[in-house]
Amino acid sequence: MGLITSGLLGVAGGAGAETLAEAASLVYEGNPQLLAQRAQLRAVQEAYHQALGAFAPTASARFSRTRTDVPDLDVEASYASDQFSLEQPLYLGGAGHASLKLALAQAASGREALLQSEQQILQALVVAFSAVRRDEEGVAIARENVQVLEQQLSETEAKFALYEVTITDRSQAEARLAAARARLLAREGQLAQSRGDYLAVVGQNPGELAPPPVTPNLPATIDDALSRAERNNRNLRIAVYTLQETQARLEMAKAQARPTVSLQVQNAESPLNSFNPVDSVRATTAGLVFRQPFPNGAVRSRIVAAEAQGQRDELLIDDARRQAIRSVSQAWNQLAAARATVSARRLEIRAQQTAYDSVKEEQRLGLRTVLEVLNAEQELRDAKFGLVETTYQEYVASTALLAAMGELRFIDFVPGLQEISPTRRRAFHAPWVHVLDKVDSIGASDPAPIETVVARSGGRPDRSLALPPASQDGP
What we know:
One of its GO terms (molecular function) is porin activity. Keywords: Cell outer membrane, Coiled coil, Membrane, Transmembrane, Transmembrane beta strand, Transport. The chain has helices spanning 20-30, 32-52, 95-161, 167-202, 222-232, 234-255, 297-364, 370-405, 410-413, 433-440, 450-455, and strands at 58-70, 75-91, 260-273, 276-291. With 475 residues, the chain is α+β, with helices and mostly antiparallel strands. It is elongated and about 140 Å long. 34% of the residues are buried.
């Protein structure tokens, strides 16, 4: 009687088996971490409207009533006055435009953080889903192993009763059976833990799990993988947008030393004199207000600090790129090694199965001992456990490679998924604020594209494993 021979991706689920796509859809719509990250992005996007508010006019009004009493002259008077003023910024020294750039960079960074969270949670789902399937197979193999050893012990005891084998043979069979039962308990404990991990990610216990789909959009070469990582790796993109935030803060600091210009209109009414409240005068004035801050150490200190922060962020971009390349290289080599190992394990199982069947027949003819049969059975079982583990590692490594490139997405695993991507809320702003932003942007520079920033760094791995084709054959 042989052991089961399926690999992790080779066990077909039933007609009603739960698919990875169904689990991913549940996670995408209901995982609390994702819901929280989307809410955080909506909050960050409000900074754009807040920044536009710097170009909006401000109005103020003052109303007063004054009572004048001169006891010696037996005279008293009471009069009212009012004043209304409106001020419209025309030029903010670049601070308004810099605030908008900061808000846009923060929103872009927040969106990358959301995509990064989606990747991390999807990767956790893939690991949990694959681990449950791996451990279910491991339990099945371990249980089959117990059944085989129980039969082997029964045969050995029958031969012992006929004095065909020794007590040593019987004790060896008993020991192997006890060890197999212990391994079965360990495998069942591991399965319970993996089911708990699945529950934490999906929010419900796993049912019968169907085989996962082929990992989509895998690169053909490591150079392709590295190029895609330099464009899309989430940590790298967050580092670039962080630099853009710092550059915007530097412009805001410099703007504090520049002049500002605004249009001010005032309308006021007051009596001609305190004792003649009937006759009043109303005056309307309009003019440009020019303000030039005096230089001080605080402004200069903010500029120096922002410049130092910018240097730090540029170095962190280089570090993020190196980490992205490292992650891609690791995942690529792990995937290549796992694929090669899966193929080797399949060949090993075929050979071990033949060896086990032969040793079993030879033992029946008296040419092999009980220990030799037990050893052959153990080698076959270990090969099958190894195939289950390496098949799991292959699938997990393939999704880790996509994550390292920044291309592990729910939409690729859930056909027809309606993506939830928070967009900036539409709000009314005065139609001239965008014109004023253009004026305020005079002398400002646009941020460099991500590809240009990343290209300033260099270096790629000079050696990596060749990626074997994915095997679709069962063992």
